[in-house]
Amino acid sequence: MSLTNEPSFRESVELMFNRAASLMNLPSGLEEKIRVCNATYTVRFGVRLRGEIKTFTGYRSVHSEHMEPVKGGIRYAISVDQDEVEALASLMTFKCALVETPFGGSKGGLCIDPREYEEHELELITRRFAYELAKRDLINPSQNVPAPDMGTGEREMAWIADQYARMNTTDINARACVTGKPPHAGGIAGRVEATGRGVQYALREFFRHPEDIKLANLSGKLKDKRIIVQGLGNVGYHAAKFLSHEDGSRIIGVIERDGALYDANGLDVEAVHQWIAGHGGVKGFADAQFVENGADLLEVECDILIPAALEGVINLTNAERIKAPLIIEAANGPITSGADKVLRDKGVVIIPDLYANAGGVTVSYFEWVKNLSHIRFGRMQRRQEEARHQLVVDELERLDRYLGDAWSMSPAFKEKYLRGADELELVRSGLDDTMRVAYQSMREVWHSRDDVDDLRMAAFIVAIERIAASYRAKGL
Ligand SMILES: NC(=O)c1ccc[n+]([C@@H]2O[C@H](COP(=O)([O-])OP(=O)(O)OC[C@H]3O[C@@H](n4cnc5c(N)ncnc54)[C@H](O)[C@@H]3O)[C@@H](O)[C@H]2O)c1
């Protein structure tokens, strides 16, 4: 996509990479190796639908194989093209390195508007696409593991997993060929919410650092912060829900395809989400002001802006008018490289996509490990937890006996301790830990180097250093 003669999405990511690389001391050959996309496979395939053969175009791009398998979602959208898929694949490379998931970067896409098709038609299309990729090892538990992205979810991942299993009946690890599957098809608890949950954990971590809050010209905590979200899909909905329900933030605006909703007192995220599910958009929702040109809301005063839909939405046409002092990139590439400079010059703090939406791939990693281990995730830890918790319970019961009525142990509290950690608790705590550690690694570079003045550069530097070390270890 090219907006106002700005570089394409892929070029924009490359410009950001180049800026980071210019602050590092990489041999030029290695720098080039890390920058370029290794391969992009284009497939055109036919599916008989509604009495005629329809041809679809899909892509799977592999940006870097410094670690394998490579990993990255599959997007269904009309905007999908080679440039977009390659940009997204390169972001996956740096994202995986930043949060230390042992994968290279990949991405796939199908040029399709999924809303135009019935469920059984989408299944035929998805299975055929999966077949085309799997027969070339572009879906494979040890080489290339897709996941959901815009326009796809658990349903599509279950079809892909089943298609791969049919083609590889003796592969005992077949389930690990794709992540983001529903729990009854080998998925893991907490994967659907993971990317939005990661956005929440990222913001919580940011708000643990007073110095960083001050740099964004904000104060206090997440509570009562006014937030505008673009895209109430998988990522945007979960982020908005958790931030409003659990952290007391106010979602004052929601931008969707057909317009936007605004309420300075805070929208009921659940009600808006249900309205969109029933009506295909936000128009007609009664309890808020409707804004015809949704993108206008990007420019409205708020504390935190969360673009969670498309790339390139904050560009040279609107960057100057953005008022949010803090932007967290839940979407991939929502800010063009040109807009990034305008915003930095204005003093806006940007929590970059590489980090902000890494919750998805982090929990996908847990799912992949669970599939390969063939053991219910958390079972081993659970035994240890139970042993430890039994000691706590014994201690509590002793206290209960001594203190009698003066101090009574709550049955719910006791039950929680006895139960030990379940899969969802383990996934969430593993994700929280990952988001904290990754933030701190970026933050250290951000604050310790005079030549690094933004989190995006810090994120790229941390990631590129790790990828370079990995290539060096391979002898390249
Ligand atoms: N799903 C994941 O796990 C995941 C992980 C990492 C990053 N991401 C990124 O997050 C972004 C959103 O992905 P998702 O999975 O939530 O997709 P989704 O398809 O579930 O949701 C996208 C939402 O954006 C809305 N939208 C589309 N075009 C819009 C426009 N022009 N203006 C306003 N709203 C618009 C859609 O109506 C939908 O509600 C993408 O950039 C994706 O690459 C997703």
UniProtKB/TrEMBL annotation:
Entry binding sites for substrate: K71, K95, S364
Give the source's domain of life in one word: Bacteria
User: Which residues does the entry assign to the active site, renumbered to this chain?
Assistant: K107
Oxidoreductase listed as a keyword: yes
Keywords associated with the record: NAD, Nucleotide-binding, Oxidoreductase
One GO biological process term is: L-glutamate catabolic process
User: Where along the chain is NAD(+) bound?
Assistant: T195, N234
- Domain Glutamate/phenylalanine/leucine/valine/L-tryptophan dehydrogenase C-terminal stretches: 188-475
GO MF term list: glutamate dehydrogenase (NAD+) activity; nucleotide binding
**Record's InterPro entries?**
Aminoacid_DH-like_N_sf, Glu/Leu/Phe/Val/Trp_DH, Glu/Leu/Phe/Val/Trp_DH_C, Glu/Leu/Phe/Val/Trp_DH_dimer, Glu_DH, NAD(P)-bd_dom_sf, NAD_bind_Glu_DH
The site (Important for catalysis) lies at D149
Matches recorded under Gene3D superfamilies: Leucine Dehydrogenase, chain A, domain 1, NAD(P)-binding Rossmann-like Domain
Q: Which Pfam families match?
A: ELFV_dehydrog, ELFV_dehydrog_N
Give the family, as the similarity comment puts it. Answer: Belongs to the Glu/Leu/Phe/Val dehydrogenases family.
Protein name (database record): Glutamate dehydrogenase
> What is this protein's gene name?
gdhA
